[in-house]
Every structure is written in structure tokens, then in C-alpha cells.
Amino acid sequence: MQIYFYKKKLNNTFFLLFIVFIFFSSCNYLIGYKSINKIDSLNINSMCFKHHSNDCIILDSNYLHRLKKLIIDSIDLHDLYQPLQVLVFMKGKLVSSSCNCNAPSSGIFNLAWNKNKAFEVFPPVPNCKMNNEISLEEYTNLINSTKIYSNTSVVFVVWTNAFKKKSEQLLNIVNTNISKYNPSSALVLVNIDNIFITSTN
After folding, report:
1. Are 105 and 111 in contact (CB under 8 A)?
2. End-to-end alpha-carbon separation of the chain, Å?
3. How far is Cα 130 from Cα 78, in angstroms, rounded to an integer?
4. Would you give the DSSP letter of residue 126?
5. Under DSSP, is residue 111 helix (H, G, I), strand (E, B) or coil?
6. Counts of helices then strands in the chain (DSSP H, E)
7. What pLDDT is stored for residue 198 in this prediction?
8. What does the alpha-carbon distance between residue 44 and residue 137 come to, in Å, rounded to a whole number?
9. How would DSSP label each residue in 93-109?
10. What gap in Å lies between CA 161 and CA 128, rounded to an integer?
11. SS3 of 93, please?
12. Model confidence pLDDT, tens digit, residues 136-165
């Protein structure tokens, strides 16, 4: 039992290091990290309500494994595993993708998502270019959602309580973009807290 527990702790450590590597390699560093030790469903639902989300999804800990099966391109894999993302689908096709890695810094604590007025059009001007073509159906399967969206446009925002202030900033920008330029869009909040939690059981 002691050997098994030791090996499991090592596996958790290596897994956490792998996550950190994916997050921050070739990336703008994110400042303001807050550790998470459990999923706070009440807090997550509150965020979804506050930002007028049509759907609220909490990614499970197997997200990375599904992602690696679906995406073979290393750059796409890197971008789709970031803690802050915006993905816009129109008529079932991905038309815009942005993530924290490619968002320029604005001062010490903020990211300039709207640089060059990127979020003053719809769909927003992407800061990532996906080499793999991913459909809305593939993405909903990836995030383990069974919901079918009838909206012409669906906007997914990936966020985390590990970077709560930056998540709030991004969600405010996306909400403003939708309300001004495409109010009929469905907004889906995708919480990624689970990958920040390493089990010691």
C-alpha cells in the first residue's frame, strides 16, 4: 500500500508538471494564480448566472485524455488546454479561436483581449489559428456535453477560478461583444478547475 501510494503521488506530480508545461510553454505568463482544492459548484453556477450563460459546463479530469485523442497537432493541443479561451462556432464550424497565450499583456495583471479592436466585431478577430478543423459536434463531445444548440452562433468561454479576475475580465469582454454585435448567440461557460486539482487519495 505504501509503495502504491508513493507511485500515485509521483504520477500526480508528473501530471501537474505536464499541465504547467502545457499552460506556460510559448505563453505569456499569467499572474494572479489562486490554488484550488475542490470544485465549488455554487460559485461556478453563480458565475454562469452573473454572465447570462445559456449553459454551464464543468470539465471533468479526463478532458486532456479526450483532447489528445481528438487533436494530433501540438499547437492546437497546446491552445485548447489553456485556462482562458474563447471559441466561436457559426453554423457548426469553428470560425474564431482565442486563448490567453496569444493575448498581449496590458499592465502587470490584465490581458489586452481587445487589442486592435479584436472584440469589436463578430465573430471576434482570433488570436489563434487552428490547424485541425473541429466541428461544434466534436467540441461538445470533447467537453462531454450532450446539449444540441439550435443557435446559428455558439460562443464557448473556457475559464477558471484559479485566475478568477482574469476570467471575469474575459467574460465581461465577451458579454459586451455578444450584446453589441450578435445578441442571438448562445453563450456557454466551460469551467476548467478540475485540471488544477490533483488527488492525493
Report:
1. yes
2. 12
3. 11
4. P
5. strand
6. 6, 7
7. 52
8. 24
9. EEEEEEEGGGSPEETTT
10. 23
11. strand
12. 999 999 999 989 898 999 999 999 999 999
